[in-house]
From TrEMBL:
Chief localisation class: endoplasmic reticulum
GO cellular component: endoplasmic reticulum membrane
Keyword Aminoacyl-tRNA synthetase tagged: no
Basic and acidic residues biased stretches: 17-26
Protein keywords: Endoplasmic reticulum, Membrane, Transmembrane, Transmembrane helix
Region Disordered: start-end pairs: 1-36
Domain named Lipase maturation factor 1/2 C-terminal: residues: 404-526
Family: Belongs to the lipase maturation factor family.
Localization annotation: Endoplasmic reticulum membrane
Protein name: Lipase maturation factor
Length: 546
């Protein structure tokens, strides 16, 4: 039988053992906080399958394109669609109003979605400038900070939609709809209110990421199929023999690319078909093949940027390609040990340790919104897919008034020789006088003066220069705005002349006559043409005279 002292000693020993175990437990990471901290120390590389950093890259890229687009609008809208523009948007809105019954109601808004319906029309130039400046400010903020919420992205989309809807022929290019679709998808990348780069309770939705991937698949397949079904030169591999010389606005590299040997041009066409028709399907073959698609599409678009001035089209097409990359593949773009990258590492460590935020009502509602987005894009994609499968495929078309899901394509046909309309004026009273001196106007970028080097402006865009390319193979009856230009030049209108590089009648009397001469242009061969000349006219004939 144990004595009282032995019992007390045994009890003391037990207490010491229990105390020792307790301290031992406190020194090992068995509780959740210590486990999480240990995971954070262990996790030094980003894990695959998350898209926090992808979201930041996408938002900054979309904001960059928006900033360029709004800058172009601010610099050119007044001259093109302003109060005294070539095609005033006020006149267009009035014609729409008459068409829908003389009232500004939902039918008018559905026909032409624009906030200009709700603004004072007494100073339309101020309205256009205001929209452009607000757009520049918002997109500049997102570009610099790498953060946005749904409110900001929705405002950018509404503002640019308002310009495109009233832009008429000046905004009739495929990249306008492509920017609107890309911008619409960007709305759903963001939290509703938060301006955090890495908001813990609002991870990027996989559905949202896949809407971008679906966009790049449709863009490239549309471009590839329209070529195969279009100009025969895409099938006999000769289109690149002409493209660099006849594209709307060549750049300096276009001249040198045009001089490439015939076998290289054949290789270019084959590569184009492979990248536009085969590579997009890699998107559906797992993470690595999706990244291969993204990489090849970006390289392809950079090549196009280098070889021509195609506005911000190719820059914009890079954007959905970025959705092919997750955080692990984009981590090299971010600084280690701080900022967004460290925040993502911490979130991944917490997830690995089993720490996941308890779903809130807001998070559950957001999941419903993401599913609704997927259903909407799927539903609106039906006519687009049917168009891709159709032998009568059309490109750069919208099947809904908001341009949420569109068809795309480029250069389905290739012009085989370059034509230019060269505007000229004279002070002579008789335009038929053989002694009359005709002096040429020079545009900011389009070919004209033979000694001027081709310009380099991408991603910026001169809308008038681009439309003059179309006017060159149309009659002036098909392009009435050309007649408007001639009338403005007769008056030495400073607004229109601000869109040109050289006015031969600056500080002189107004011209008595203005005409358009139709020239055929071609690049000179290196070392064979007149010294200092990039282009050589072959022939000309009069097309416009006023």
């Amino acid at each position: 039988m144990a004595t009282h002292s032995e019992s007390s000693e045994n009890t003391l020993r037990k207490r010491r053992v229990e105390t020792s175990k307790t301290h031992s437990d406190d020194n090992t990471p068995n509780n959740e906080e210590d486990t999480c901290e240990a995971k954070k120390k262990e996790l030094v590389t980003l894990q695959t399958g998350t898209y926090w950093l992808t979201r930041i890259v996408l938002l900054r890229s979309i904001a960059f394109i928006y900033f360029i687009a709004f800058t172009v609008a601010y610099n050119q809208n007044k001259q093109l669609i302003g109060e005294r523009g070539l095609l005033p948007c006020k006149d267009y809105l009035l014609s729409v109003k008459r068409y829908v019954g003389g009232k500004i109601d939902m039918s008018a808004f559905a026909y032409t979605p624009s906030i200009l319906w709700f603004l004072d029309w007494t100073d339309m130039d101020a309205n256009l400038d205001g929209i452009a400046l607000v757009g520049m400010a918002l997109s500049g903020f997102v570009l610099l900070t790498g953060t946005a919420n749904m409110i900001i992205m929705a405002m950018l989309w509404v503002l640019y939609h308002s310009l495109v809807s009233v832009g008429q022929i000046w905004y009739s290019f495929g990249w306008e709809s492509q920017l609107l679709e890309t911008g619409f998808l960007g709305i759903f990348l963001c939290p509703v209110w938060s301006l955090s780069q890495v908001p813990p309770r609002c991870p990027p939705s996989l559905i949202s990421i896949w809407t971008f991937r679906w966009l790049i698949v449709r863009i490239m397949l549309g471009a590839g199929l329209i070529k195969i079904r279009g100009d025969r030169c895409w099938r006999d591999l000769t289109c690149m023999d002409y493209h660099y010389e006849t594209q709307p606005v060549p750049n300096p590299m276009s001249y040198y690319m045009h001089q490439s040997p015939w076998w290289f041009h054949r290789f270019e066409v084959l590569s184009n078909h492979f990248i536009e028709l085969i590579v997009p399907l890699f998107t559906f073959l797992g993470r690595r093949m999706c990244m291969v698609n993204g990489t090849l599409q970006i390289v392809f678009q950079v090549t196009l940027i280098v070889s021509g001035n195609l506005s911000f089209l190719n820059w914009l097409t890079i954007v959905p390609s970025l959705a092919c990359f997750d955080d692990a593949s984009l981590g090299f773009l971010f600084s280690s040990g701080r900022g967004a990258k460290q925040a993502v590492l911490d979130l991944q460590a917490e997830e690995a340790a089993g720490w996941t935020p308890k779903p809130t009502r807001g998070m559950l509602f957001r999941r419903v919104v993401n599913v609704a987005l997927g259903v909407l894009i799927g539903y609106l994609s039906v006519p687009v897919v049917l168009n891709l499968l159709s032998s009568k495929q059309v490109m750069n078309t919208s099947f809904d008034p908001l341009r949420i899901v569109n068809t795309y394509g480029a250069f389905g046909s290739i012009t085989k020789e370059r034509t230019e309309v060269i505007l000229q004026g004279t002070l002579n009273e008789d335009p038929k006088d053989p002694e009359a001196v005709w002096e040429e106007y020079q545009f900011l970028c389009k070919p004209g003066d033979l000694t001027r080097r081709p310009c380099l402006i991408s991603p910026y865009h001169y809308r008038l220069d681009w439309l003059m390319w179309f006017a060159a193979f149309q009659t002036y009856e098909q392009s009435e705005w050309v007649i408007h230009i001639a009338g403005r030049l007769l008056a030495n209108d400073t607004s229109i002349l601000s869109l040109m590089e050289y006015n031969p009648f600056q500080g002189r009397d107004n011209p008595r006559w203005v005409r358009g001469e139709h020239f055929k242009y071609r690049f000179t061969l290196p070392g064979s043409g007149p010294q200092g000349k990039w282009d050589m006219p072959l022939c000309h004939n009069r097309r416009v005279e006023g």
